[in-house]
């Protein structure tokens, strides 16, 4: 079965540390770890995350 790809931007990743969005963003990250979906990042998003604090990079 083909795994669906989901495009991420920095707001989804940042949402993991935001009370309002944490449940959804962390749930999506869990789905990525379980290989239910494949995350896709643009080069720009990757560059922005690479400059972010470690708590965001570790996601």
Question: Could you describe the 3D structure shown?
Answer:
This protein has one domain (4-57). The chain has 4 helices and 2 strands; from the N terminus they run E-H-H-E-H-H. It has helices spanning 10-14, 22-33, 43-50, 54-57, and strands at residues 4-8, 37-41. A two-stranded parallel ribbon has the order 1-2. The radius of gyration is 11 Å and the shape is globular.
The helix-strand sequence is EHHEHH
How many structural units, i.e. domains?
1
Task: Determine the strand fraction and express it as a percent band.
Answer: 15-25%
Give the low-pLDDT segments. none
Computed Rg? 11 Å
Key words describing this protein structure:
59 residues; alpha+beta; 4 helices; globular
Detail the topology: elements first, then pairings.
Blueprint: E1 4-8, H1 10-14, H2 22-33, E2 37-41, H3 43-50, H4 54-57
Parallel strand pairs: 1-2
Short description:
Helices cover 49% and strands 17% of the residues.
